[in-house]
Predict the 3D structure of the following.
Amino acid sequence: MAREDNPRTCPQCGDPLPAGATECPRCDNGLFVLLHSREIVLSLTAAIVIVLFFLTGFITRGYHQKLGALGRQWFEAGEQQLKSGNAAEALADFHTALVYSPDDTQIQFQLAQALAAERRNSEARAYLLELQAHAPSDAPINLALARISAGAGSEADAVRYYHGAIYGVWPSEAEAKRLNARLELCRFLIARGDTSIAEAELIALASEIPERNGASLHAQAGELFLSIGNAARALSEFRSALTVAHPPADALRGAGLAAYQIGEFQQAERYLDRARRLNNKDADVSEALDISRVVTSADPYAPGLSEAERRDRARRDFEQAFGRLQSCARSRGIDLFASGALQSELVTLGTQAKALEPQLTRENLRRHPGQIDVAMNLVFVMEDAVTKECGAPQGMDEALTLMGKFHRGGER
Amino acid sequence: MNAANDAATVPAPTDSAAQAANRFVRLWNVWRRKTLTLREGQLFLLLAVIIGIVSGLTVVCFRIAIEWTRFWLLGSSMEPSHLRVLLAPTLGGLGVALLVILVFKRSRGSGVNQTKAAVFIFDGYVPFRTVIGKFITCALAIGSGQSLGPEDPSLQMGAGIASALGRSLKLSREKQRLIAPIGAAAGLAAAFNAPISAVIFVIEEIIGTWSGGVLGAVILAAISSVVVMRNFLGSAPMFRVPAMEFRSPVELIGYAVLGVISGVASLSFLKFILYFRPRLKQLPRWTQYIQPAAAGMLIGIIGIWLPQVMGSGYPIIDQALHDQFLWKMLSLLGLFKILATGISFVSGTPGGMFAPTLFIGAMLGGAVGGVEHLLVHRPAQSVAAFALVGMGTFFAGFLRVPITSVFMVGELSGNYSIIVPTIIANMIAYFISRRYQHVALFDFLARQDGFFLPSIEEMREHTALRVEDAMRPGAGIVLGDGDSAELLREAEASKSSQFLVWRDANGWRAISQEELRQQAVTESTGESTEGAPGRGPLPQLYPDQPLDEALRLMGNWPVVPVVNRANLEKLEGILSVDDILEAYRKP
């Protein structure tokens, strides 16, 4: 305001006026007015802006290149550390890489993996959830989230993310990775004791295993079926695994044990025999093989037996069971055949056996083959009763018990 | 007219070539003024866009300069060697002190209160030298690890660029005063990548009023600058926020606790700065050379154990949002960041408070979220939600801009799902801070520097008086229809000497008893009277009009009618100058 009131200054530019002058020499100069006109100033500003734009573009390009290089450098350092097992150092490197390449999903994923490796699951989960929000169908992200949820015991989340991994998009080898993800899901469910869902997943898995190069997966599926007690499906999977030229070593073992569990003792003996030749230190295989051999040698219902052999086996089995019954009764101080003995199951069975024994002659059995079933039924009942009274059977008795389990009543 | 003047004032040339050139220039000036000249309003909007573009470019270069400085001084690692951590901020502080004291004297401080002073005291004048000074000194200070941010300096640089452009275009004083906030909004928007928050902050903290004349230009400038910035640095939000949601009202209890903690922490931070800043300024002048270096050394010592507190800290906020720290570490980072930022700022090192404020808020929020997660076993994402809300909450308590803080949380993160907790926590923090520290930070800093700027906070809460607050009933003053004798009888029955009459064709008119008497005498003698009785038409006021506007409209009329907007004949009351003064005098 003071400037405008001063008579010695130019009202337009505010410069002091020369002594005696009434008009401003600058503002009255056309060229000066032209150069200081708004249009010229705006034009010059626009020109400067354009130059600045290109200059900034040049600077920014160099900056982005530098950031990109630093991001890669720190990422590679992190990967090296992770490979060397230094997850803590890898974490610091990945964090630094992420500062320079914040939008690089590969770095974020690796960082999350490193965090998970360090058991910092909630931190890993935070990164993975953000990644998943941007790529909900990304299978590796879903699988990593599933593993974290599984580790945290959150079954519903884990199943959801495993399914995300199974049905999601894999960058490469999609078929194999999907099957592995489903296999992992099955293992998780079995570990959680959720066998019914696990069985459904296993059935789905079994149906998806390709014919070529699927032996290992068949064997693994068989193991899992076996672990949830579905020996029939397990045997089927192991058989599929054994169809290839070089079957997995465990397939023979698994097939033998599966066959053993479902009472296919002849098959079990065959598989287990081969398995023991490959590894004779496997106690389960040896035990199952021994029992299978006894069963196949004592089973009067085994296919391909002559009638005479069938009768002989039935007679031997009866003698074995009756002998065990008497031995058990003696050990318990029970006289099976004394008049006025206390009525117990052993006494009843002893009485029945005593009554049946004379009828089990070769001749009688030849004339009345139905007596074999009667005898074997009594054998199985006696074995069960003695097991209840005197403990687990051994050797031949164990074989008879198993036989009873699968052939009760002569049904095959 | 101008053409004639030009023709008359151009001096006569001495030779033919010069004569021709001068003639050309003269004709060009005449044509230019007739065809090219923009009206000031149009120019202002065009200028807003240009300011936005230039500010955006400057902020892009500024951010890159900070990063390059950090690479050179601290290296690219997030955990630099101890020697670097100790030496970089110390030597950087020394360099900054020399530059500020010897070359760029006006580059001290954050830049917000300086911009506000420019608007209210210096007619929007911000020297261009300050822009250069801010750019260099802040890049050096922040890049060397001083615990300060780039936003406030960007705001001042934008204001400086706008001021320089306004001066070169010889804008009127009124426009010159308005143009600095436009540049400030552009600078802040580019620095924050948040145009809405920048506009609201400038309105809320610098201008203080939602003036329609400037709002359009402010928005244009802010958007232009953000577009430019995103073109060069990408459009991603400043923070990558994990998925989160507000699930149950019960969660608000935790957020309320966060509001209380942030309020107390922001108040402590405010008191720390307001107590130590004047005391350090009062120390002998030679100490000014070493204060930033000493601050740098202290920050370096903290940085040996907690390197996260150095610099603006944006990557660390990102990590906190991704649940990368336990609550104890978050608390530690929050407390030491308060200390480090306080030391940096009171030492006179140029740099901003926005980024550290967000950092502290995120850490405290994350810590509260972490404790809540432990206590009530909420999902892990709740820590990120608390960190995000904490940023806004501490911002509201410390900088005392509650509206900006709410929008900022949403805009910086691109996530509006937790707006309700943000509002509640922010308000609690704001009220605690306001209750125990009456003057806001930037106003207090300006007062410490000798500038008594208007408190925008008080302006915001000031209730403008309206006509309805001052008017009185018009009973006994309004005369009905009839001839002058009837009106005179009516007037004589009243105690008043001034009256109002409504005439459909002429509106409200004023008439005194004396005038009525003369008119009645004239009519009784048979002389004809021309037109409606009395003087007028009177200006009409409405009950909702601001009182200062009413005062301007009243002119010299002793009394003015206050009418209904839907029915101009219906008198709501009357207003005189005495009524207005009486209303203003009321406590």
